[in-house]
Amino acid sequence: MPSNDARILLSAAIPAAATGAIAAVISGVVAGGKGAIGAVLGAVVVIVFMGIGLLVLQRTAKSLPHLFQAMGLLLYTAQLLLLFVLMALLKNTTWFDFKAFAFTLLAATIVWITAQARAYMKAKILYVDPKNSGSST
Fold it and tell me: How far is the CA of 59 from the CAs of 29, 55, 95, 99, 132, in angstroms?
């Protein structure tokens, strides 16, 4: 994985994991052990879903740059639909607190997207490949 890709992935995953840890403590205090389990599970789901999505999007950007924007829209739509399906499947579960899971899922997703946007804005990614810019003829 190129250094920019790893840096962007870590720049988004670390704040999301920290959000999950804070949510686990708060949920543990409010809802007990089941709340902490729900919060941890929510953070893990966000990190896995968004991490895989980021890796797929970066791979697409390198191999098929003309499809990057369409792939990004399709990927985020698919991620949201999968999260809704997962939440519908786990709605009546009894082995963790669903509210803690849902709120952590929401908070960690917002933190991930914000951190990822910030990482892209701070990254020094070239718009033009300097190796290919002079060899157009």
Answer: 41, 6, 37, 35, 20
Cβ pair 35, 97 in contact under 8 A = yes
- Distance, in Å, from the CA atom of 113 to the CA atom of 131, rounded to the nearest integer, reads 32
| pTM assigned to the model | 0.80
The model's pLDDT over 32-91, given as tens digits with 9 standing for 90+, comes to 899 999 999 999 999 999 989 888 888 887 888 788 788 888 988 998 898 889 889 988
C-alpha–C-alpha distance, residues 70 and 63, integer Å:
14
Q: Which helix (H) or strand (E) holds 44?
A: helix 33-63
CA–CA dist 105, 113 (Å, integer): 12
